[in-house]
Write a structure and sequence with these properties.
The complex is a heterodimer of chains A (about 110) and B (about 110). Chain A is built from no helices and 11 strands. By secondary structure, chain A is mainly β. Chain B has about 110 residues and is an all-beta fold. Chain B has no helices and 11 strands. The termini of chain B are far apart. The mean pLDDT of chain B is about 95. Classes of the chains: A mainly beta (about 110), B mainly beta (about 110). Chains A and B meet through strand 5 of A and strand 5 of B.
Chain lengths: ~110, ~110
């Protein structure tokens, strides 16, 4: 079972470059979210979606865009990468809700911005 | 200000020893979740506690939710190297479609 799939697993960018982190889930979950994990900071919510066509901001949305055109996919876009965006990014999905049900996480995408 | 404080941040023990880690808050939560994250992987849900005073067991792991629903503990009996990982507690935020996560308890079990 694939679950939540994130690509790429590793990426190095230069300041100012743009890129998209891909996230796909095959569990037909309505709820999807993106987190970043930094040492000493824990998991912080970037953006989330409660269904296709609906997105909203989390705690740390600046510098990131998302869209949700299908139930399966929830890409995260960095428009102009900055060193402060160096982090490990996790996509997660849930069947029952982002604050009540079990979150299923991908394996993470490690991003370094030089 | 961290809503969920986890302690200790880091714990290293020998195989076979017991350990307890804590997740504390000044806020009341309707439920708390515990996840385990292994190196290079995403967190995986271990348990959800929903009733004050509740105790749940998962093999050698025992989870307890405080009576006032402000804290939780995880006790591991006879720890094994496979228990090594980052243990995260998380609780729902009222009025928000999100979970608050603690910073985690990093547990290392030495063979």
């Amino acid at each position: 079972n694939a679950g939540v799939t994130q690509t790429p697993k590793f990426q190095v960018l230069k300041t100012g470059q743009s890129m998209t982190l891909q996230c796909a889930q095959d569990m037909n979950h309505e709820y999807m979210s993106w987190y970043r994990q930094d040492p000493g900071m824990g998991l912080r919510l970037i953006h989330y979606s409660v269904g296709a066509g609906i997105t909203d901001q989390g705690e740390v949305p600046n510098g990131y865009n998302v869209s949700r055109s299908t139930t399966e996919d929830f890409p995260l876009r960095l428009l102009s990468a900055a060193p402060s965006q160096t982090s490990v990014y996790f996509c997660a999905s849930s069947w029952t809700g982002l604050n009540t049900g079990e979150l299923f996480f991908g394996e993470g995408s490690r991003l370094t911005v030089l | 200000t961290q809503l969920l404080e986890q302690s200790p941040q880091f714990l290293s023990i020998q195989e076979g020893e017991n350990l307890t880690v804590y997740c504390n808050s000044s806020s009341v939560f309707s439920s708390l979740q515990w996840y385990r994250q292994e190196p290079g992987e995403g967190p995986v849900l271990l348990v959800t506690v929903v009733t004050g005073g509740e105790v749940k067991k998962l093999k050698r792991l025992t989870f307890q939710f405080g009576d006032a629903r402000k804290d939780s503990s995880l006790h591991i009996t006879a720890a094994q190297p496979g228990d090594t990982g980052l243990y995260l507690c998380a609780g729902p935020l009222y009025g928000n479609n999100r979970l608050a996560f603690g910073k985690g308890n990093q547990v290392v079990v030495i063979p």
